[in-house]
């Protein structure tokens, strides 16, 4: 490409006649800008914000010269914004400076991050970014159609638009000249709208799958164990009371139905320790920002990939529908590259054909990523585990005042329960099951007949451990387990009995997952407010069960409408005969300021979802004849035009391949973590002598009448005395 540009620069009178013009751009108002070989070469030589590719340099020249020629108030306004951006960078450096890092060092980091060397180049970088944003915003207005019925951002979101004549036009189709198609933001990124409640664990440790710790306050005010268990009680609509008889030292626990069950949003405000995001999670019904396939540091793998695994592997309601089964390929784990765009042959009986599983994405144990995540399965947390966690929250001594195993915290009953039932990084549901530790709970009784770990005192081992518990009639009667979820999630207890899973007061299934990151440790409780696989949304049937809408029903937004960029006061905002529809933008009745923020969240996500978007925009302008290559010096000009198209083809392919490989690698890392988890949890599983302590350990230490295994030399004994 540079060779062809250099050839052009050798022409006589480059800037004096049309022979030096490479191409022209005519904007919507008729302003015409010409671009010469000299312009391009000069831009390569002098620009401080040099970009990585030829196409990007052409695009930069294209935008910069357009605004230079325009001048006036528009350019002055953009320059003022660039100056503001530089001041912000300086303030950021000042705020980041510390005793170990000076202002100059912090500012140098900012310069390096933008590939510039000094303040002037930083200003030029920001000026171009502001100019590019303004230029692209003009395209997003109506996708250069001049048709007021067309919204360019909405078109980019959907991959198509409907013009004034009701014709549907795809905007990013495949082209032999320009390269592969793009389906638009909705299908490319599969956006989700979640709500969540985060319980942080100060004592948690990354990579510890069997002997992690959960804290508890010693001041009588309750700590992590109490908070976690109380949240589960509140979600289920349960009251918990417990007391220990002063004479016998025996605990009696009672679970009853609460008459004042609270909403998920209210519980988020009380319990959630996530104040991040826009809007802030804990103060906005537990909302997260929009979740998409583009990996973000805001969403740890257990939350994001765990939720996507639930949607594509374990949620039979959505993966069993035509729309869901087809588009599940876009987010399913461990598939081959061609499967990511696979749509036409998907069936409900075989949602993921084995021929589409990427056998190259295998773990060290030889298992494919897809099979590892599928085989790890949907985890189960028995409601009885929350009861036990509350019972054992502050138990660190026996009834005689002796510390648990010389105060080895791993053996604290609460940590035994936590590791067995809660410390799981695969996505989980909460079941109405009783566990061995619930023998003190009034009303459980016979439900416990099949859930006891069986000790062999001769060999000091424990066998027949149970990890799911047994369905309890007491727990099943709680409001949180009253919704029939069997048509969505298929789970059963240790005896094979099918059961419902926990739903919130709105009837939405509550997911739970243990998360670890460099930033925090905790457990997320998640509800899917809007699924990318739900084309027409969900509605409650006559039994109060959420069912998938086969077609759009009154009062329910389809997926495109739900992620609208319009504000409610716009005449284009989604509505039907029932009025304005519930969307992400007006969710939770936000303030006017929040409405704008939420609309901007969607717009920003759409504008940044694909690094090759500028090639589609350039293609658009060429096809609309707004960018016209000079027909003089035709061989050289043609060579330049062909180079731009060649770059476009390669850029689109590399963008798709990079995105897919990143996505695939993230799934692999997550699968490897699950493989490590399962390997550690299975060690000694049949004997009770592995790293994951058996529940018998917790039960017998907490009960003053059962201390056999805690004698010196016993299976639960750990000490030097």
Brief sketch in words of this structure:
With 721 residues, the chain is an alpha+beta fold.
Categorize the overall geometry: elongated
Q: SS-based structural class?
A: alpha+beta
Q: Give start-end ranges of low-pLDDT stretches.
A: 1-18, 344-349
Radius of gyration: 30 Å
Strand order of the largest sheet: 5-16-15-9-8
Number of helices: 23
The biggest beta sheet reads: 5 strands, mixed
User: Fraction of residues in helices?
Assistant: 25-40%
How many angstroms separate the termini? Answer: 80 Å
Q: β content, as a range?
A: 5-15%
Total number of beta strands: 21
Kindly report the average pLDDT value.
86
Notes on the structure:
By secondary structure, the chain is of the alpha+beta class. The chain has 23 helices and 21 strands. The strands form 8 sheets. Strands 5-16-15-9-8 form a 5-stranded mixed β-sheet, sandwiched between helices. Helix 1 (2-9) crosses helix 2. The chain is elongated, with a radius of gyration of 30 Å. The model is unreliable at 1-18 and 344-349 (pLDDT under 50).
Topology:
Elements: H1 2-9, E1 21-26, E2 32-36, H2 37-46, H3 54-70, H4 72-96, H5 103-113, H6 119-142, H7 152-158, E3 160-162, E4 168-170, H8 185-189, E5 193-200, H9 224-236, E6 238-244, E7 251-257, H10 264-271, H11 301-314, H12 316-319, H13 322-327, H14 337-340, H15 369-376, E8 379-382, H16 383-391, H17 413-422, E9 428-431, E10 433-434, E11 441-442, E12 454-456, E13 461-463, E14 470-471, H18 473-476, E15 511-516, E16 521-530, E17 538-540, E18 546-548, H19 559-562, E19 575-576, E20 579-580, H20 592-607, H21 613-623, E21 627-629, H22 634-682, H23 695-702
Parallel strand pairs: 7-11, 8-9
Antiparallel strand pairs: 1-2, 1-21, 3-4, 5-16, 6-7, 9-15, 10-14, 12-13, 15-16, 17-18, 19-20
Helix pairs in contact: 1-2, 1-22, 3-6, 4-5, 4-6, 6-7, 9-16, 15-22, 16-17, 17-23
């Amino acid at each position: 490409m540079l060779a062809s540009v250099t050839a052009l620069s050798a022409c006589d009178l480059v800037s004096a006649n049309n022979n030096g013009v490479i191409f022209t751009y005519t904007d919507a108002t008729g302003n015409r800008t010409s671009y010469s070989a000299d312009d391009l070469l000069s831009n390569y030589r002098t620009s401080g914000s040099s970009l990585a590719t030829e196409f990007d340099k052409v695009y930069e020249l294209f935008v910069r010269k357009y605004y230079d020629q325009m001048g006036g108030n528009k350019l002055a306004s953009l320059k003022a914004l660039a100056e503001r951006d530089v001041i912000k960078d300086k303030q950021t450096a000042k705020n980041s400076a510390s005793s170990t890092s000076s202002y100059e060092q912090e500012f140098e980091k900012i310069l390096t991050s933008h590939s510039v060397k000094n303040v002037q180049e930083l200003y030029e970088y920001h000026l171009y970014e502001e100019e590019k944003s303004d230029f692209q915003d003009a395209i997003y207005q109506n996708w250069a159609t001049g048709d007021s019925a067309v919204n360019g951002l909405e078109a980019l979101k959907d991959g198509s638009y409907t013009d004034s004549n009701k014709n549907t036009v795809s905007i990013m189709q495949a082209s032999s000249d320009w390269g592969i198609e793009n389906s638009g933001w909705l299908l490319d990124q599969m956006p989700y709208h979640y709500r969540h409640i985060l319980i942080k664990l100060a004592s948690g440790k990354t990579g510890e799958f069997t002997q992690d710790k959960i804290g508890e306050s010693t001041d009588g005010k309750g700590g992590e164990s109490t908070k976690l268990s109380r949240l589960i009680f509140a979600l289920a609509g349960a009251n918990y009371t417990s007391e220990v008889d002063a004479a016998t030292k025996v605990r009696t626990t009672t679970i009853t139905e609460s008459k004042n069950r609270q909403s998920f949003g209210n519980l988020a405000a009380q319990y959630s320790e996530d104040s991040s995001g826009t809007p802030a999670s804990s103060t906005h019904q537990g909302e997260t920002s929009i979740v998409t396939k583009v990996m973000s540091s805001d969403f740890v793998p257990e939350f994001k990939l765990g939720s996507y695994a639930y949607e594509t592997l374990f949620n039979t309601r959505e993966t069993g529908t035509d729309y869901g089964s087809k588009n599940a390929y876009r987010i399913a784990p461990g598939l081959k590259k061609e499967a990511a765009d696979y749509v036409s042959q998907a069936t409900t009986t075989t949602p993921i054909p084995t021929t589409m599983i990427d056998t190259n994405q295998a773990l060290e144990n030889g298992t494919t990523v897809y099979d590892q995540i599928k085989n790890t399965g949907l985890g189960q947390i028995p409601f009885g585990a929350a009861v036990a966690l509350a019972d054992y929250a502050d138990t660190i001594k026996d009834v005689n005042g002796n510390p648990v195993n010389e105060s080895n915290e791993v053996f604290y009953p609460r940590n035994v329960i936590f590791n067995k039932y809660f410390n799981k990084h695969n996505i989980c549901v909460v079941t109405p099951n009783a566990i061995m530790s619930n023998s003190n709970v009034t009303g459980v009784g016979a439900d416990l007949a099949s859930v006891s770990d069986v000790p062999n005192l001769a060999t000091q081992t424990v066998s027949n451990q149970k990890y799911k518990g047994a369905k309890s009639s007491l727990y099943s009667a709680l409001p949180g387990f009253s919704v029939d979820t069997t048509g969505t999630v298929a789970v059963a207890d240790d005896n094979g009995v099918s059961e419902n899973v926990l739903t919130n007061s709105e009837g939405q299934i509550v997911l739970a997952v243990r998360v670890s990151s460099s930033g925090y440790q905790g457990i997320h409780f998640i509800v899917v407010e809007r699924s990318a696989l739900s084309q027409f949304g969900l509605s409650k049937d006559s039994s109060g069960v959420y069912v998938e809408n086969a077609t759009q029903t009154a009062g329910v937004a389809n997926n495109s409408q739900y992620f609208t960029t319009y504000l409610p006061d716009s005449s284009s905002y989604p509505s039907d005969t029932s009025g304005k529809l519930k969307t992400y933008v007006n969710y939770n009745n936000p303030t006017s300021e929040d409405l704008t923020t939420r609309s901007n969240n969607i717009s920003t996500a759409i504008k940044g979802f694909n690094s090759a978007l500028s090639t589609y925009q350039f293609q658009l302008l060429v096809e609309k004849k707004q960018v016209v290559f000079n027909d003089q010096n035709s061989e050289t000009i043609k060579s330049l035009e062909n180079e731009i198209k060649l770059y476009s083809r390669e850029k689109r392919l590399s963008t798709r391949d990079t995105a897919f490989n990143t996505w695939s690698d993230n799934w692999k890392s997550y699968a490897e973590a699950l493989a490590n988890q399962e390997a550690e949890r299975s060690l000694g599983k049949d004997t009770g002598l592995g790293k994951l302590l058996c529940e018998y350990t917790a039960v017998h230490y907490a009960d003053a009448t059962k201390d056999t295994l805690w004698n010196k030399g016993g299976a639960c004994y750990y000490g030097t005395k």
